[in-house]
Structures are given as structure tokens and as C-alpha cells.
Amino acid sequence: MLGEQRLIRFTEENYGKQITKVNDRIYHFLGFDHSNAVAIIGDTSVILVDTLDSDGCAEEMKAELLKITDKPVRTIIYTHGHPDHRGGAGAFRETAEEIIAFLPQKPILKHYDRLNGILAKRGTYQHGYGLTDEEAICQGIGIREGKETGKGRYDFINPTTSYSDKVVERIIDGVRIRLVSAIGESDDQIYIWLEDDRVICTGDNYYGCWPNLYAIRGTQYRDIATWIDSLDEILSYDSAALLPGHTKPLIGNELIREQVGTFRDAIEFVLLTTLGCMNRGMTMSEAVEHVKLPMRFADKDYLGEYYGTVEWSVRSIFTGYLGWFDGNPAKLMPVSDREINKVLLEMIGEEKLLVKIRECMEKEEYQLALQLLELTENNDLNKEALLMRAKQMTSANARHYLIASAKEI
Known about the structure:
By secondary structure, the protein is α/β, with parallel strands linked by helices. It folds into 3 domains: about 15-270, Metallo-beta-lactamase, Chain A, CATH 3.60.15; about 275-320, no CATH class; about 335-409, Alpha Horseshoe (Serine Threonine Protein Phosphatase 5, Tetratricopeptide repeat). Helices cover about 40% and strands about 15% of the residues. It is built from 15 helices and 13 strands. The strands form 2 sheets. The chain has a 7-stranded mixed beta sheet, with no helix packed on it. This is Metallo-beta-lactamase. It comes from Youngiibacter fragilis 232.1. One of its GO terms (molecular function) is linear primary-alkylsulfatase activity.
């Protein structure tokens, strides 16, 4: 089965619109948008955990919420600052009185804003913005964002309350809430513990496929060891329900411990195995070739590479711990790619190179074809190889990036 077909199957099986009634006052909304939201009904109002990504999708969710309760949304809690969790806030502007968020626990690198142009372009490629529904299929951890499917736009409301503490205990409209800073996919990530209900809302620190331990749009190093610590914290609670910011909720303590525990163990396996490869002197390429999920992890669909990939994780760990130099002295002061490619092309000959590239294409070795195409300029073959390689990808992010790159040619 092609990666494209697996991604379609995963999307159809996991992202149908669904409201889960956890108990009489907690509801989880899945499939209304790219991200999820949680409604907690208090004495006189609703506390909303995240708001979906667009105002149009949030209005649809709001209409469903009104069928459950006529109490207004007066409190919004952002699990983190990613726009797909905040963009629907404007739908609740008339009633929302307090917007709660946490500040990043690690500072953003100075001058990072000087990269806004390239980050925006690469983000567009990763998320599949501008692609058709057929090209994009989904965004890996959820359906496409509403702003991409004609359901409104980002409509943010800035936080009115921002915390820098590790733990904040609140009673909001009769609901006891514990807000805990927990670095993971982002440095401002939190989880929310509702002790009276034995319910935990985890934001993006857990979702049901291989995570973005590195995002190809470009990010600072995501501290994977600390992410694992955050998962240990989440697992320390006696939760009856775990409500993630993407993918299906997990109901039942046994399921939570099995699935989130396996998710945590698989991430730790990749981290420690990669560090072991590095310590033995392997290059980045050798480490990527060596680090594969064993069957006890690889056969779990909720660890499937529909979003991030193990290979990207290994590369990120390598550069995060040791930087760009992989120890190979030939790469210490290399000539430019342009210069080495010119020499290789002169040695091989363009005619012979194109014969080999077409042979790779016939064998469906599209990745090898793409790398050989780096030696020459052939837009038609390059575009074809990019599009065919995209079909092999289970990762929505990889698929999007390849298709967007082909369309730019």
C-alpha cells in the first residue's frame, strides 16, 4: 500500500466529526477543525480549552455547544500558542472575559524574527497551504485547517492572564483546575488536570501518531528529553480520560497507560538509540540508517509516521546535541555543493546520468532520482520525481512539502 493510501485510510478512520461526552460537564470536540477543543461546564459558564483554528469552524462548534448548554463561554485556556489552537477564539469574543495562557519556559533566540520570511514559506509548504484537498488529504494530526477549506480565518484574542509559574491552582466558576507548564512540542505547552473528574487535557504533548520532534518548517531544537519528562508527569495522574489537542480522546486508565506509555517509550528509544550511535562515532547519515523502531513500536498505528518521522527526529537529535558537524573530516571545510556537483557531472556525463535517473524512476526509486537530479537541471524530471515521491509518503508534512516544491517549478 502506498503511503498516500495509508494516509487516506488513517484520515478516514480517525478524523470524523465527533463529540465525546466524558461526563455531565466535560465534552471533547474532534473533527470540527484541524485541532480539538474541550468544553468544561461550570456553575454559570463554560470554560473552553483551546478554540480550534478558524472562526468559521469555531462557530460550528459553538452551535453544537449551545445544544448541550445555554451557558456562555466566559473563560478560554490556551494549551499553547500555536495558531491552530487559538484562531477560533474570535467566535467567543462577545462573552469571553478571561483568556489564560502560559509564557514560554525557554526564551526564543534573539533575532529569530529575522527569519519570518523563510519560516512563513516553509510553514506554508509543511502545512499544505494553497494545495487542493486532493493534494493535501489532511494535516497529519487532523483534518485541514478551516482557513484552508473556506471556513473562516484566524481570529485571535490575546491572553488577559499570562503565567510563568510551573503550577497554577485555580477554582474557575466552581471548577477546580490545575494548570501545569510542561515543555514538549512547544516551550509554552501546558496540561490541565481536573482532579474531581479525573480528566487530563494534554494539548500537543500527546497525539495519536509519530510526533513532530522536529518540524520541517524550521524550529529551535525541541528538547526531547524534557518532553519525555512531561509525558512522565502526565502518566503520573490517575486519569480516567485523556483529551488531546489532536486525534481521538483516550477513555479509561488502562488505555491511557498503554497508549501514552508506549508513545513515551518509543520517543525515549529513538532519543537514547540516536545518542548511542553518536557516541560510537557514527555520522548523521549512519545514525539515520541505524535507528529504526522495533516491531513492538512499529506495529502501532498510533505511532505511524503520519505527521513527524523517525528520520527527522534522529537528525534533530544529532544537531541538537552535537551541532552540524558529524565528525567526518571530509565535511569539515567542504567545497560548495555547486562545485562538487559540477565535478561529478563532468565525470559521469549528463547523458549517462539521465539514463540512470530514468532507470531509478522506472524502479520507483524516486528519492534516489531526486538526489541524482541535484547534479543537473531537468525541471520536467524533477517535478515528476517530486510528485511521485509525495505519493510514497505517509507523513502529511513530507507529502505537502514535496508537492508544493513541485508546483513551484
